[in-house]
Design brief:
This protein is of the alpha/beta class. It is built from 21 helices and 20 strands.
Length: about 575
């Protein structure tokens, strides 16, 4: 179990002249203390225009200041909204890498979406497509941190030509990647993309167990295809926290802040109406808290085990980790049993006093943290056994980093519109026998879908025969190529021909793999295996077949030099090029 602190940088009204200045200076003092006490990470949110709730609009600046006043605590962006309307992915990659260098490799990069209209409308981000925007951006940010140069992007929401995004991070291949998970649906998405899950839902440990189990089940399954170039299998949950030897005093010091945190979230994301510069959320909170599940009177010092949600005398409320050291140990033990890897404690909330936060950090480190530190090695071993080689297998399903086609360059006088170069899958320097075909074929499929024939031609042109046979010549690779032939078939150019064409493809070991393309008056259909009665049989090495498909080998020259053999109707052979969308010849 890891223990971290989380900041929204809340400043409830009425505001004092130096309120924001004092808030940030005190937060840095708290981070310094947390570093000395052995807390694992400081997480800083990124929000915009959310008065009182979050004055943390530039977390990278805050974390950079913290990096120079600390030595071991990790520095978490918690989280960066990735829709391009907020900021270009290159700016995210640059900021994360710069902080990673400044901090000697201590960055955790949390990403996510937002649900408040204040931010979405403020930046012109479409609510309906922001999930798709995030999904595109997280993969592009990861590529920017590992590709030299970044090979460009041409997606629905992000278009960028090749550029070398610098600096590169100190951590290789890049800092651990996370995503904010307010719902179970986003937890599933985190697991499917090999990302750490940051749950901000304030959920009971008994309820979170099923979420954690499903998360790790997906991580270990074929559904996990990493967005980055490393898997970050970790589940973190956030909780309000305040600890004191006297339970009543802990409640007095921390409960109003915890409730204001929840109320402010609801104000901006669920039930509030806000007049910028005029609405006082703190005043509304005091008047309405009982009505929306933050009843102060429902919280009492009774020595009972802690819970997140409270119902007492018909009133609902929220509590979390607010109590004595013994109560916190019991509650945290239940989260540990549920499989949670990290708890993010929200202490700087509402009008909670700085001195009380400092005292709580000291007491937690002295009387709560040691019990869990002793169990860390055993938990790490159990987790490693549970995961096995899941991360390695997941990375085999991920497309490799890309490179730029030969000859691409931009000129000093170019305009703001730069022609996109073709991004080509880059094979790892020493691929495992299992990884190379699957990863490269996945990348090849994506290239054909994204850039079409240009990408395939570039891939073929820079590959030797061994690589072509190993990747595009694998069973999966041939399905991609023959599938492209099906799509490129032009019935009008077949001149009435119907029948089967059989391809006998020789592998490096001398074996022959047969494929049949069946042509009728409307379409071409490809399948593995020999034809019953082929009109034309074409025999050649699998690498030569790929080179012809990629226009890197002239088919007539291949026949004349003996690299390709034809048997059957030569007239059909002469029409093949036109049938499949090429300018004449076979």
């Amino acid at each position: 179990m890891r223990f971290s602190i989380f900041y929204e940088h809340q400043v409830p009204r009425p505001w004092e002249a130096d309120g924001e200045h004092r808030l940030l200076q005190e937060a840095l003092e708290q981070v310094e203390l947390a570093d000395r006490l052995g807390f694992d990470t400081v997480w800083a949110a990124e929000h915009h225009f959310l008065e009182e709730h979050s004055h943390s609009s530039a977390p990278g600046v805050f974390l950079a200041a913290a990096s120079q006043r600390t030595t071991t605590i990790r520095l978490g962006f918690g989280t960066v909204p990735l829709a391009p309307g907020y900021q270009h992915p290159a700016r995210v990659a640059e900021a994360a890498a710069t902080l990673d260098l400044l901090s000697d490799g201590r960055v955790e990069l949390g990403t996510g979406e937002t649900s408040s209209g204040a931010e979405l409308a403020g930046f012109g981000v479409d609510r309906e497509t922001q999930t798709a925007q995030w999904s595109e951006a997280i993969e592009i940010v990861a590529r920017m941190m590992v590709e030299t140069p970044f090979a460009g992007a041409d997606t629905d929401h992000i278009k960028m030509p090749p550029r070398n995004v610098v600096p590169k991070p100190l951590q290789k291949p890049h800092p651990p990647l996370w995503v904010a998970c307010p719902r179970q649906e986003t937890i599933r998405r985190a697991a499917e993309k090999g990302l750490g899950a940051l749950s901000f839902a304030f959920v009971e440990p008994e309820d979170v167990r099923s979420w954690v189990d499903e998360y790790y089940t997906i991580i270990s399954s074929d559904r996990c295809v990493p967005a980055g170039f490393a898997v970050n299998p970790n589940f973190a949950a956030a909780l309000p926290m305040m600890v004191h030897a006297d339970e009543a005093e802990a409640i007095e010091r921390g409960i109003d802040g915890a409730h204001f945190l929840g109320y402010a979230l609801g104000h901006y994301n669920a039930f509030g109406e806000h007049a910028p510069g005029r609405t006082s959320i703190w005043e509304e909170f005091q008047a309405r808290r009982d009505d929306v599940g933050f009843a102060r009177s429902a919280i009492s010092a009774d020595g009972a085990p802690l819970s997140v949600k409270v119902l007492q005398r018909g009133l609902g409320s929220v509590r979390g980790a607010i109590g004595t050291p013994a109560q916190l140990r019991e509650l945290i033990g239940r989260y540990e049993d549920a499989g949670v890897d990290e708890l993010l404690f929200c202490l700087q909330t509402g009008k909670t006093q700085h001195k009380h936060i400092m005292e709580a950090l000291e007491l937690f480190a002295a009387e709560v943290m040691p019990a869990f530190a002793q169990r860390r090695p055993a938990r790490a071993r159990d987790k490693a056994e549970r995961l096995g080689d899941a991360a390695e297998r997941a990375l085999e399903r991920r497309a490799p980093r890309r490179t730029v086609a030969r000859g691409y360059a931009f000129k000093a006088g170019d305009s703001g519109v730069d022609a996109a170069a073709v991004a080509i899958p880059e094979e790892p320097a020493a691929p495992s026998a299992r990884r190379a075909p699957g990863a490269a074929v996945t990348s090849l499929r994506r290239q054909l879908e994204t850039h079409g024939e240009r990408a395939f031609q570039a891939f073929v042109g820079r590959s030797d025969d061994a690589r072509l046979a190993r990747t595009a010549g694998s069973g999966a690779g041939l399905r991609v190529i023959f599938g492209a032939m099906e799509r490129q078939f032009v019935p009008e150019r077949a001149a009435g021909f119907t029948g089967d064409i059989q391809y006998n493809l020789r592998a490096v070991d001398g074996s022959v793999r047969a494929w049949t393309v069946a042509i009728d008056r409307e379409r071409a259909r490809a399948r593995p295996g020999a034809a019953d009665d082929a009109e034309l049989t074409i025999t050649l090495a699998v690498a030569d077949f790929i080179r012809i498909a990629g226009r890197d080998l002239d088919p007539v020259k291949a026949v004349l030099t003996g690299r390709m053999e034809l048997a059957g109707d030569f007239g059909v052979a002469l029409k093949l090029g036109e049938m499949f969308g090429q300018p004449g010849g076979f």
